[in-house]
Write a structure and sequence with these properties.
Blueprint: H1 2-26, H2 31-52, H3 56-65, H4 67-89, H5 94-101, H6 104-110, E1 116-121, E2 124-129, H7 134-155, H8 160-188, H9 194-220, H10 225-252, H11 257-265, H12 269-281, H13 289-321
Antiparallel strand pairs: 1-2
Helix pairs in contact: 1-5, 1-10, 1-12, 2-4, 2-9, 2-10, 3-9, 4-8, 4-9, 5-7, 5-8, 5-12, 6-8, 6-11, 7-11, 7-13, 9-10, 11-13
């Protein structure tokens, strides 16, 4: 249950991404700076945290062992995740982006056959190729149905172009984030904690962010002071707090695709938190009756997803001990 709780707290802090990115776009800030500033500002903050914990040398040691793997999968997991989200914020409200982002619940489950899970047998741990958790996926579809219902009363307000520019980049991000995260878990093989892994991935993705920042400077000049401050808040709340919590939760269940899918499903709460944040910070209207019912459906789907995952693990554990 602890990984689920950590995942929900991560969803709370992740929600700041959608709200603040939308706020920056409404104030005229460039999506390029919104994306690159977050990770450029995260790097020194994370370095200080990991240094204070006495774990910096381990990060650089791991990166030196597999520099290309770190570069590629960090760019996928962070670069191809966050840049598309910021791009989408230029074309649609935070609620639509947060809602579409929940496709990551399905994306993570569908990628299970690409990885191996560790199964304990009488002769010791054995690696077998992961299988799509169909029961958990069914519960995830309930969450997704709630998300779709939540957006139903709002989607008609957007043009086809706005819908495509919102949806397609977020779909790309929904696959890139769990793919990069899981690949880096394989590369690290449990040798780094959540703080170290986030720092390593941030440093390894810096070439991508620096190139993006140079493009932003050439296209739009330097960012405004307000955008720098808001990007700093996103870096702390979402980049550090949320990412570390989420990575800590996924580390607890690594090697188990069903539990990993359940942890990833906790991110459905981002919709609830993002909707509340837009009402409070951006003075958006309160959700209507349809959206309120959809939020309840998301929560029910989340509970059922967690229940199915943990029940199956309990049965497997009893069988192994028999």
């Amino acid at each position: 249950m602890k990984p689920i709780v950590l995942g929900i707290f991560a969803a709370f802090f992740f929600a700041f991404t959608f709200v603040l990115n939308r706020a920056m776009e409404m104030e005229g800030g460039s999506w390029v700076w919104s994306a690159s500033l977050r990770f450029i500002m995260m790097a020194p903050l994370l370095f200080v945290i990991v240094w204070a914990r006495g774990n910096v040398s381990g990060v650089f040691h791991e990166i030196k062992k597999a520099p290309f793997a770190w570069l590629i999968w960090s760019t996928v997991g962070f670069g191809l995740f966050y840049a598309p989200l910021c791009f989408a914020a230029a074309y649609g409200p935070g609620w639509l982006i947060a809602g579409t982002w929940q496709i990551t619940i399905i994306s993570g489950s569908l990628m299970a056959p690409l990885f191996y899970e560790i199964v304990q047998t009488q002769s010791g741990p054995v690696k077998i190729r992961g299988k799509i958790p169909y029961k958990g996926l069914l519960m995830s579809l309930i969450i997704l149905a709630g998300v779709a219902l939540m957006q139903l009363e709002h989607a008609a307000q957007l043009s086809l172009q706005e819908m495509l520019f919102c949806v397609v980049p977020v779909l790309l991000a929904s696959f890139a984030y769990p793919l990069g995260n899981r690949k880096m878990m394989e590369v690290c093989a449990g040798r780094l904690d959540a703080y170290q892994r986030v720092l390593g991935m941030t440093l390894a993705s810096l070439p991508f962010w620096l190139v993006l920042a140079m493009y932003g400077f050439a296209a739009d000049g330097l960012p405004e002071r307000g955008q720098v401050i808001q990007s700093g808040l996103v870096a702390v709340f979402s980049g550090i707090c949320a990412t570390v919590l989420f990575f800590a939760a996924t580390d607890m269940v690594k090697g188990n695709m069903r539990k990993l899918a359940a942890v990833e499903a906790t991110q459905s709460f981002e919709v609830v938190f993002a909707a509340a944040g837009e009402v409070w910070i951006l003075s958006s209207p309160l959700p209507g009756a349809v959206s309120s019912a959809a939020i309840a459906l998301v929560i029910v789907g989340m509970v059922l997803n967690s229940y199915v995952s943990n029940k199956k693990e309990a049965i497997k554990s009893e069988a192994a001990n028999a």
